[in-house]
Amino acid sequence: MTIRGVLFDKDGTLIDVNGTWVPIYRQMLCEQFGIEPTEANRMMERVGYNPDTEGFHANSILAAGTTRQLIEYWWPDLNEAEILEKVRMIDVDYAPLSKSLLKPLMPLVPLLQELKAMKFHLGLATNDSHYSACNHLNHLGVLDLFDEVIAADTVPTPKPSGDMIRRFASTVGLKPSEIAMVGDNAHDMEEARNGGAGLAIGVLTGNADHEDIAHLADHTLHSIAELPGLLRSI
Q: Of the candidates 112, 113, 97, which has an alpha carbon nearest to the alpha carbon of residue 10?
């Protein structure tokens, strides 16, 4: 097997999902939408927030869904224009707050530079919006290290459809079977399978435990810090 491209998930794989998104969603619901704190917590629980761990349940909307899916669940009676406006408020208006709370899981530049030196094409595949994802990577100083940023609003169907694998393969001139998908969620492993990726690599730095993801992955790592060593051994 020859792997020549690595497609990363973002939240829970590169970025600390709980430390970044729990306070963002809580503040956003209270400040932007005028919701009382107790009700805001209840709204978050309905889409995957776990108050006992201050994190998200694996495979929930908060852990793996798109902004639009979140809006449609919270406010099911909105029309299309109202949905798009709320999506914009979350993805664009709250971008400064997102950046201020953004926490990488480890120093990303050395790791990504090491993979580039190993001649891998690098991509990002996220169910976040393209605007938000690019802002995050730029803030962390790693945007230029990626060949492509693929988001929920840049493919016909978001993860786990396989569209992101196929899009990245087409962009960098590889076969899907030459790509390794790396993520912290079952959706990422299903994206790998549905897109025909050569490897599905799970990491345990998000909200999925070993039993949630290992049976779906070809390899399960504690974090992306172990990724260069794994790819050298294959």
A: 112
**When comparing pLDDT for 98 and 157, which is higher?**
157
User: Of the candidates 77, 101, 125, which is a domain's last residue?
Assistant: 101
Distance CA 189, CA 215 (A): 10
Tokens describing residue 161: 């459809």
Range 33-60 average pLDDT: 90
For residues 57 and 94, state if they share a domain.
yes
Please return the burial class of 2, using the count of CB atoms within 10 Å of its CB with bins 0-12, 13-18 and 19+: exposed
Supply the CATH number for residue 145's domain. 3.40.50.1000
Q: What is the residue-wise DSSP string for 94-126?
A: THHHHHHH--BSS-HHHHHHHHHHTT-EEEEE-
Domain enclosing residue 85, as ranges: 17-101
What global pTM score does this model have?
0.88
pLDDT in tens, 160-186: 999 999 999 999 999 999 999 999 999
Pick the closest to residue 12 from 231, 223, 226 (CA basis).
223
